[in-house]
Structure formats: structure tokens, C-alpha cells
Amino acid sequence: MPRYQRIAIIGVGLLGGSIGKAIRQRKLASEVVGIGRRQSSLDAALEIGAVDRATLNLKEGVAGSELIVVATPVDQIAPLALAAAKAAPESLLTDAGSTKASICESILSADPELASRFVGSHPLAGGHRSGPEHADGDLLLARTVVVTPFASTPPEIAAKISDFWRLLGAIVKQMTPAEHDQALAATSHLPHLAAFALSGATPEEFLPLAATGWSDTTRIAASDPALWRQIFATNREALLDALTRYEDNLGLLRQACEQQDWSTLEKHLQNAQRIRNALGD
Amino acid sequence: MPRYQRIAIIGVGLLGGSIGKAIRQRKLASEVVGIGRRQSSLDAALEIGAVDRATLNLKEGVAGSELIVVATPVDQIAPLALAAAKAAPESLLTDAGSTKASICESILSADPELASRFVGSHPLAGGHRSGPEHADGDLLLARTVVVTPFASTPPEIAAKISDFWRLLGAIVKQMTPAEHDQALAATSHLPHLAAFALSGATPEEFLPLAATGWSDTTRIAASDPALWRQIFATNREALLDALTRYEDNLGLLRQACEQQDWSTLEKHLQNAQRIRNALGD
């Protein structure tokens, strides 16, 4: 017997499509319903087997769900979660947004009772591609999903959402929305900003001389500008803090180069290499 | 009949070892001699089939060569090329250093006649690994090698060095040492500096939340600090110019975030994405 009767996914892009595929491959629900704004995305999601049924109608799509996952761009998550919660008053809800405090706080302030039904999530998976055609049922395998309950969330509700992600193969970490945003500003949002700036600062006539180093360092600058504008906007303060730390560090390297203080420069590089090597390839 | 009787490679790390392997796999020389400073590297180079013969003695190693490739860290290239040129007075010479003006100018100023025997080269290949154990005979396949003749270099000598790299599968571009250094400051040296700074600015307690974006953007911060200190030092001015362009671009993104001018931010991101997409994955 599948664990869930019906799961609804709002937004069937790369992430929503991958979650749908993962649920269906693992037979975790009797039915996965996909809800989108464009028929072409819904058709693609059906085509690749990410959902059993697809609709443009939110109310109809979420009706009778036990769990709703909102996997849209960040600025649509709060309003869609609130509308979905109204249309499916028994359902648990979570999301897949890259920032958490802004989303979770707008939901809680609009409807404080949702603390017992909505728990924010952020699957650390995706990359610079988008669209259901790149969906992958194993996208979350061994990936981290951060789950961010409110202080007022009943622990068993946070546990249920955490279990859902674990059943898709993910490793779950729980923390507050603010802790999430501070950490992700440093590990994801700033790297994107830095990659966009590095690409944007490259004189195009030099591109034929770009090799692996440039490609790796700027790869995520191929990400969707409209999505990243929203992510930067909804995590602005933590991003600016992380950017200040980065500018300070760049400034130390600049100073060492300007003063030709190469042993100090090498010490900074060694420290950076040590931090990089703490992670794998 | 092999094209060359004897080629000597000074420095048998990742790049020197790969060049040796490539020459031997393509039967381009009757004998490849490896010259190094440590017996362990020479043993490894012999073991993986990068050289036919290996020696710690520079004079003995280069004697009778038609071509000498200096593939050591950048600060040793000029003195070793000068010593090798003396010990093998008939040989052509090239190098594999990541910066060119400083190296080529020290060689030319020490011995102006070497303009007819030494032509600088920079194979855009390698990456963040080092050591002959990662050597790969196909490392240069379809990669760019920049060849930087002096104004006084006879064209047939530059052509000979260019042909050598082409025979190893590379695509050759000729330009002046200064043009090379300007371009590579933007496409390689600055990305390394930015990656080191980004890694160094990451609070270590946040590392468990690093995903693909952070890994890609900081991958080259795993590179050898001692080698990169030399590269930064020998291309200091062009690197500082590129860094200024980068800081200016980062400053524009910061300003848009601070002023919450999200449509301007998105325009900058779109421009960066367009430049990034001009290259492949």
C-alpha cells in the first residue's frame, strides 16, 4: 500500500518534475497530481512520467491531497501555498524554495494556523538547467534537504515532512529558516552572485582562451536570471553579509598582490585550499 | 620514421608527463628524456610510460635533443631554459608556463640570440590535479595551446613549435606574450583568485550545506597555492586590471541589491548569462 493516497505538486519544472518522478518510481503515492500555469509544461511532465494527472486549475488539482509540494519560483510560493491550503484543508504542505525566512514568514503571518500544516523545505539539488525535460527521479538521492519548521510547528508534523524527503532518498537537516538563509547565502547565493559577476566581467574577445577553470567557476552563471533575481531579493540581507565577507577576502588577496607580499598571499591561498579540500570533488 | 630523434622534457608533473605520454603514444620521437629534481617523480614518469629515459642531471638529459620542453613551475622556467639552451646548442626550446611576458622577457634579455631557438607556449590544459600519476596522453586533444613568438623570432621557428603542439592534437593560437597575459588574466588567473577568495570566505560551519554551485565555483581553489602564487606574481599587473573589472562588476550587483533595484540586477545577470552561454558546458 502506498504511503500517500494523493500528492499534489504545484510547479512541474526540473525540481517539481524530479520530485514527481521520484514519488512515482518509489510508489510512494497512489496518485501524483501536477499543477502548472502552462499546458506545455504539464504535457511535458505527463510525457516523462512525472505525474499521473495534470491540471491548470489549482483548486481542482490540490483537492483531496494529503501532501502538497510547492515547487515554483520563490516569489510565487507563499501565495500559492496559502491558496492551496484553503482548497485542501486537511493537507500537509511544504515547498522547495531556495530561501526560507521570507517565504515561511509570509505564510505564517497570513495564516498563523498553518504552522501546524506547512513546513518549509529546500532540496539542495537542481543546478543550472531548468524544465521538466531534465527531471530525474534520482535527483535527490543522497542530496541534502533542509527542513525549516517554525517554533510553533508540532514536532510530528516536521517529522512527517522530513520522512517524505527521506523516502525520496535525501538526507534531511532541520534548522530554523534564518539559520538556513545565513548558511545558504554563503554556500549558494553568494557563489551564484560571484559567478554572474565573473562572467559579466570577462571581455568577450578573450572567451576563446577560456578553459576548464573559467568554465567551472562561471558554470552557474548560466542559471535563470529571473529566478536568481528573486532568490537574491528574498535573501538580501544575508547575501549582503556574505558578499561583505567575500569582498574582504578578495581585498586581502588584492593587497598582498599590490604589495608583492607573496608569502602572505600564499598563506591566504593555503587557507582557501584547505577549506576547499574539506569537501570532495 | 619519427619526426624527432630526441625530445627532452624538463619537469615531469601532470603537464610534462602528459606531453611525454602524448609524444610516445604518437611515436613522434625516437626517444623522450625526462629531467626532474626528484627521483620519485622520475620513477613515476617511467612507470606510466611518459618517458623512455629519466635523469636528475639537466646537462646529460638535454644533450643531443632537437626539442626541449620546459614544463616546470613558472619561476623555474627561465633559468632552466637558459641552462638547457647552453647544454644543447642545436636544440629548439619551448615551455608550458601559464604566464608568458615575464618568462619570455627574462630569457630574451639574458640571451637575445635565443629569439631564434626559444618560443614560449602555454597549453590551456591541466586543472586542479598535479603529479605524473594523473598524466594523460590525450590531455591536449582539442585543447588550445597559445604560442607566443618574439617579434624577432623567425616565422619558421614559431611554425615548428606550433606544429609540435598540433601533432599532439592541440589547436594552436599565436599571439604576443603581452596579449596572452591580458587574456589569461581574465580567463584563468582571475577565476583562480576569485575561487580562492570564495572558498576562503566560506564559514566552515556552513560547508555541510554546500552543493553543486559551491563545488563548481570553488573547484580550482584546490589548486596548488605555491604554483598559483608564482602565476599571480609573474602576471601581477594584468591580474590586478582584471580584478578591478571584477570588483567593479561585483559592485554593480551589490548596489542593485542594496537599492533593491531588481530590474537593473536582472539586466546584469542576463548579460552575465549571455556571456556564459557563449561557451558550452
From TrEMBL, chains A, B:
Ranges where the Prephenate/arogenate dehydrogenase domain occurs: 5-281
Keyword Hydrolase among record annotations: no
GO molecular function: NAD+ binding; prephenate dehydrogenase (NAD+) activity; prephenate dehydrogenase (NADP+) activity
InterPro entries: 6-PGluconate_DH-like_C_sf (IPR008927), NAD(P)-bd_dom_sf (IPR036291), PDH_C (IPR046825), PDH_N (IPR046826), Preph/Arog_dehydrog (IPR050812), Prephen_DH (IPR003099)
GO biological process: tyrosine biosynthetic process
SUPFAM superfamilies assigned: 6-phosphogluconate dehydrogenase C-terminal domain-like, NAD(P)-binding Rossmann-fold domains
Source superkingdom: Bacteria
Keyword set, alphabetical order: Oxidoreductase
The protein's name in its UniProt record: Prephenate dehydrogenase
Provenance organism: Adhaeretor mobilis
Lineage: Bacteria, Pseudomonadati, Planctomycetota, Planctomycetia, Pirellulales
